[in-house]
Design a protein that fits this description.
Layout (H helix, E strand, L loop, with lengths): L3 E2 L2 H4 L11 H14 L4 E7 L5 E6 L17 E2 L5 H4 L11 H7 L2 E7 L6 E7 L2 E8 L4 E7 L6 H6 L3 H18 L4 E6 L2 E5 L6 H9 L1 H6 L1 E6 L4 E6 L12 E5 L2 E3 L2 H10 L12 E6 L5 E2 L10 E2 L2 H18 L15 H11 L23 E6 L3 E6 L2 E6 H18 L5 E11 L2 H9 L1 H6 L3 E4 L4 E8 L7 H13 L7 H13 L9 H13 L13 E5 H7 L5
Parallel strand pairs: 2-9, 13-15
Antiparallel strand pairs: 1-4, 2-3, 3-8, 5-6, 5-8, 6-7, 9-10, 11-12, 12-15, 13-14, 16-17, 18-19, 19-20, 20-24, 21-23, 22-23
Helix pairs in contact: 2-6, 6-7, 9-10, 12-16, 12-17, 13-15, 15-16
The structure holds adenosine-5'-diphosphate and magnesium ion.
Magnesium ion binds next to helix 2.
Length: about 550
Amino acid sequence: MPIKVLAPELVSKIAAGEVIERPASAVKELIENSLDAGATQISVETQGGGIELIKVGDNGAGIPASEAELAFHRYATSKIGDIADLGNISSLGFRGEALPSIAAVAEVEILTQTSSDSIGSYMYLRKGDVVRRESRSRAQGTSITVRRLFRYFPVRLKFLKSANAENSHIAHVVSQYALAFPEVRFSLLLDKHLSLHTTGNGDLRDVVSQIYGLEVAQKLLKVTEASAFLGVTGLVSPPSLTRSNRSYLSFFVNQRWVRSPLLTRAAEEAYHGLLMDGKHPMAIINISLPAQEVDVNVHPTKAQVKFRHEQAVFAGVEKAIKEVLSRTPIATTKAVPFSATSWQEVASLRSQRQGMVSDSEPTFIAPLPALGLPVLRVLGQLANTYVIAEGPEGLYLIDQHAAHERILYDKILVQWSKKEVEVQGLLQPISCEFSPREEETLKANKDVLTQFGFAIEPFGDRSYLVRAVPALMLKTNIRETIGMLLDNLANKENPTPWEENVAESLACHSAIRAGQQLSNEEMRELIKQLEQAQQPRTCPHGRPTMIHLSSHQLEKEFGRTG
Ligand code: ADP
Ligand code: MG
């Protein structure tokens, strides 16, 4: 549908109110627009808690050049046309308020291109007015950059929390959409740090693993329940895995993220009698039902919905979860300590290290039960393969290769996503002869390799000259590493996105090996960097980087406790 300004009588039927309260609200609206445009890749980047900069890029349908300006008019939307549509909304947006609301309180740049326009459009808006407009190309999709949010609205600014707290809201919003749309690839860069990255392979468990850590992801139970009336799908915690608050309950209605006391109660009811007082389950649940069954037009930010048949929804959700729980063999009421590491924990660890204690304001993100990887003290090296370290929670045996792989993997992906891969030109180019298959893979992935810093030129007859490589692989056998990399890229069965594939190969081949003696200084540096990693406890292939023996375990083993 083309973008049109809604008729006044329709506007008057729309739940009005403040749409952009804080940077995270703008992020939410922009992501929803990308999803509505059918994007399969969405990248979000923010700086200074989103106040300095928010940039959301997608590969969705784009906005036709003839409509780009109209998109910033209040109540201009391509998603509904008349009052009848209001009862049957299948898109996330429908009010045509987000873009004008954002543009009114910030400087906005948009670059967008559809598949049918030969050239895309670029606009620069200040306080809602278009101050520059030109034709510019882009791959199909849209990028919107929001700068200096609320600059002219000091009262609004005053109500915002620290950049860190705003970041945590933003991270929460992006995580929720990543959970709602496992089939979409999300990336989130907070102040140039890659905070979240999902594969878009459609597997909810993989997204959960990125957000809450591998251990949690492995423990969650799958819910799939379909009746004629509604479908309930997702993952829920077994009774042995609990949280001390409700912020690990995520509900989506037809993939719209909602806050719903009704759904919260339904989920908690399913665990009735299984959890200790004060403990709450984890759940990521999507409810699908016909659009006419839900009224999404009840709240200005669309965060709440009203069901036509509340009771039936409540019962359906409770039953679906109960059923899974009844199939879990041991319904124990003992809470297990949480030790998986997620980016949330690392973020909070990091902010504490920087002395930026987070606000006492009840943000969406819960106070975290335990920090992922505490500061560790290196004690020595075992068999030239493992680093022995101690922390406040006991003994850690760290696999030096796996740990270094994790560090390099994160580093190269961050560099790649910022388009700042450290490149090393070779004084003496290396000549390589590739097999036909290798050569095909090389040609097919030329851009990919260039993005990672490789400069490989043809030199006649399947011979090539390697003139530059990513700096981190300098110490490896370059021919061998490129060979492995090409093998990996050639493997079509491999569902991993290519950049992760490249990062994985590079990390694996550049990481210190088992059997290599390390100095104390080297070990300390390794551990320090591991502490900063997003998922220090697993290598990029998902294998553990460390074995942890807690003080409690040690005491038990030595018979010091009863
Ligand atoms: P709404 O989403 O309620 O329609 P918005 O103000 O968010 O209102 O957006 C206005 C219109 O601009 C949308 O209806 C859509 O046609 C277009 N639009 C906004 N963002 C995008 C995007 N990322 N990709 C394609 N079209 C977009
Ligand atoms: Mg919108």
